[in-house]
Amino acid sequence: MIALRYKKMASGKYSIYLDRYNEATRKRSYCFLKLHVTKNYSGNKKVAPQDEKTMLAAMVELQKASFEFNDSCKTGEKSVSTEDGAITLISFLEKQCFQPSSNNMALLKQTKDFLKGKDIVLDRINTKWLDKFKSYMSERLSDTTVSTRLMLFRTHLNRALKQGLLKRNLFESYPLKKGTPKNRQFLTDKELNQLIHTPTTFNPQIRGAFLFACYSGLRWDDVENLKQLQVSEGIEKADKRFIIGLKHIKSAKTYQVELSKEAWDIIEKYVKNKQELVFDKLPNKPNCNIKLHLWGAMAGIDTDLCFSVARNTYTVNLLKKGHPLKEARKRIGLVNTHSARIYETMLQKGNSTP
Questions:
Q1: Count of CB atoms within 10 A of residue 119's CB?
Q2: Could you count the other beta carbons within 10 Å of the beta carbon of residue 61?
Q3: I want to staple 32 with a disulfide (CB 3.0 to 4.6 A). Which of 9, 17, 84, 154 is the partner?
Q4: CATH code, 225
Q5: Global pTM exceeds 0.85
Q6: What is the distance between the alpha carbons of residues 211 and 313, in angstroms, rounded to a whole number?
Q7: Structural domain tally of the chain?
Q8: pLDDT digits (tens, 9 = 90+) for 192-250
């Protein structure tokens, strides 16, 4: 696990440092970034304008350190054996540090609590043990969380199987039910307005591309690879309609997107009737997400901004304005109406939220 922390200095400012904790080795280390801000942002507080550049730099350092931390954890892939050479469950899970996430840490804690300080040899785990483990979690967690934990547990045991530490696939005869899907996020009109009126100093194409996606429903891949020629060839000046021809990612079928006035106003300055990309200075997706998260924090929005949120926002707004689901589905390039019903659910949940 790795996170940004803040230490108050005599000057009243806060020094930012990285807090690294390796669950497998139970060792903690710190690294001061020589970056200073006016507030402690541990509680996801709104970022002050004067701290924007510093927080952006800190997030970049956090991302770099996370990659390095993951790589260093991979060296602990092999499990620890007991004295008689048998591989135990806890020792194996403690070494599964490929991606030190909150889900991994939660699963490890849940397993330790269930075993009450003891351990069990991997080969002794059977379906009866899985039933007891599932019942134990069901008494304390929601059905969705239990399902998520068991699927993660299955992933780790599959790794043990590939490493030759298990002789059989336990989950072959132990089917798992998928939990209810996570609530997909979208921006309300108020939140979108907050973003628009929150100034930023980072690459303006990130801001433009995200807002364009909010008003067009395009996926990240479509926005990133959108060429000026695609837009300029689709302009129908007679009735002032702007149409883009795109290819569906899964089916490879082409479909057309009619741009709203808001979407056209955003990209009009980038279109020069050439072959180049519309957003030719857009960084890669992870770097874009870092800036988007910062932008959301500056605007006081709890939603984690990404291009999926932008696409959701566009589709939910279409339904909100009274467009039929079938039409909304076609506008975002979905092949069947069933896949688009999630947006109706999102709208209903959004309307029921006080």
A1: 15
A2: 17
A3: 17
A4: 1.10.443.10
A5: no
A6: 10
A7: 3
A8: 999 999 999 999 999 999 999 999 999 898 899 888 877 766 665 445 667 777 766 55
